[in-house]
Write a structure and sequence with these properties.
With 706 residues, the protein is an alpha/beta fold. It contains 21 helices and 24 strands. The radius of gyration is 26 Å and the shape is globular.
Amino acid sequence: MNQQRINELRQKAESLVAQMDLVEKASLLRYNSPGVPRLGIPAYNWWNEGLHGLARTGTATVFPQAIGLAAMFDPEFLQEIGDAVATETRAKFNENQKQGVVGRYKGLTLWSPNINIFRDPRWGRGQETYGEDPYLTSRLGVAYIKGLQGNDENYLKTAACAKHYAVHSGPEQGRHEFDSVVNNKDLYETYLPAFEAAVKEGKVASVMGAYNRLNGEVCCGHEWMIQELLRGQWGFDGYFVSDCGAIHDFHVNHKVTKSPQESAAKAVHAGCDINCGDIYVHVVQAVEEGLLSEEDVTRSAVQALTTRLQMGLMSEDCPYDAIPFDKVDCKEYQELAIKATEQSCVLLKNNGILPLDKSKYKSIAVIGPNAANVNCLNGNYNGTSAEYINFVDGIRNACGDDITVRYARGCHHYMEKDGDWFESELQSLTEAIMTAKNSDLVVLCVGLDPTFEGEEGDANNPFGAGDRNTLKLPHPQVELIEEMVKLNKPIVVVLCAGGAIDLSFEDANCDAILHTFYPGGRGGKGVANLLFGKACPQANLPVTFYKSAEDLPHYHDYNMKGRTYRYFEGEPLYPFGYGLTYGKAEITKVEIADTVTDTLPITVTLENQGEWDYAPLVQVYIKGKTSALAPLNPALCAFSRVPTKAGETKTLTLTVDAAAFTVVNEQGERVVDDKEFDVYVGLCGPDARSKQLTGHTVLQTTVTKV
């Protein structure tokens, strides 16, 4: 939307709010607003989700989980997916309007994307993010926001929401009372850049406050974070919404207020416009008791109504009103989702067994608790696919009548053998061994699913409220894998998980490992296409795979020292930015200036020297030569996914932003603290482990800042 149009709609909102009494104004601040019928303002429910597809409202295309979409390293494709999600949202909204249906998950305000930093692989909700790197998260967050919000000059297609502001990444158990303590350097260097980009570049319509406190102050009542930084310094002019129940936590868990009225007053005064929860029913009483001014209520009411007007909810000329219901889970978006699966799965190991040659196998055993599991396709915050294609069905369909496909679950995801359970699980393992023994190849479908890891209240693991306490697979799966390895059969591991898993044993003993994250409703088809060579793997890890949780600081520690590829001091199992492929590409030429004054253009010549059409990822990293303020290791500063055909040569130019030549000091200020910078250009990261695993060389050159 253009700014002039936004100003016009804000003036209209101000005029309408000026005609309201206090009760009517306060009603606009509730997530389930009854509206103001006498002024023609209909009821509206703000709560809707669109993390990787329209969620929790019946049938919708289920794209790969957000962490998988991050592995694509492809902002343009992610924006296209965002546009598809917005189209389906509008299609359902339009039909609900015709039926007079208003309720949760029926609106146009999508509380996505989650642009928190995946700082620790034990966080169950890390699957919702775009990984551990602030630069990558910024680029992908902006792209998805633009996709969701559309490009119409007069109306938003949907209203995106950057969450959870700020410094929020676990623990799930205790999140309603947890205080995230972080220094200014980490705050501005790691935790805030994606939010700043969402506001300044993405023009995001909404920001959601987190449950936790930040350095002692509740995030949804943090006046400095909301008013001074977000609205003041960054120029945010959208609506601010609380996470669901977060304002209730003020007096019940954080103990920073003593009553619902005080909590409502604190949040509204700080600039929280919409309450997901039930505390804003006390707004009127808070004003009457002198805890809150009516001017604060008016301000938030104007903001809430402005957003509704921006979405065309009270207009007759919104072009998105014409989107038909048949766009929901349509063939076009089904194919888009399968393409996303193919481009989001990371090939972690391959001794040459992949792609599978059908002529070599008469029978394939598909074994494991995720082989026929639908939950591991969905991820969390998901819709319902009109058709699910699990791994065993995808493989069976790919094999046709040529190969016998056998299935055995093998074990439960995580429950140990006990009593009657022992007998059934023993039979599962015995069946898996028999199935594998009588097959030529084992496809081992293991890992986690969103019933095990995820948000507090959704996941039900027995120890962490959705978080993990280890990077190892649950013991029943460890036992299953060990038994399969003893059979000396070729083994391809298909892994599902929201983040890093300790795969040391599998890396040493299995022939191939494909990490699918949570690959979407028809993920089994996309995965089968990769296994059998109908598609070429090309994704890269947006997170570091550590060898053990023992290599990491305490989970509750928000200091970045020792975390993520930028500050990790050890050797990872699989590094950030890593991914194998069936193809072969090389960078044959790099042109880069010796000096830089502002931005730095880098021209790269890339040759596809193999037999596969695919899109290699050109990665650029940077590190100041002498600054003690720079991250420990070179940091990602530019990247580009380059579609190439076999034998094709392409030349492209990447631009390193001026900010890459700055560092954040202990006061949280961005400063130039170096004159010389090492710049690395390659098809993997510049670390030794990446070079060892991929065989790629990375060009290193020195650039002088003038």
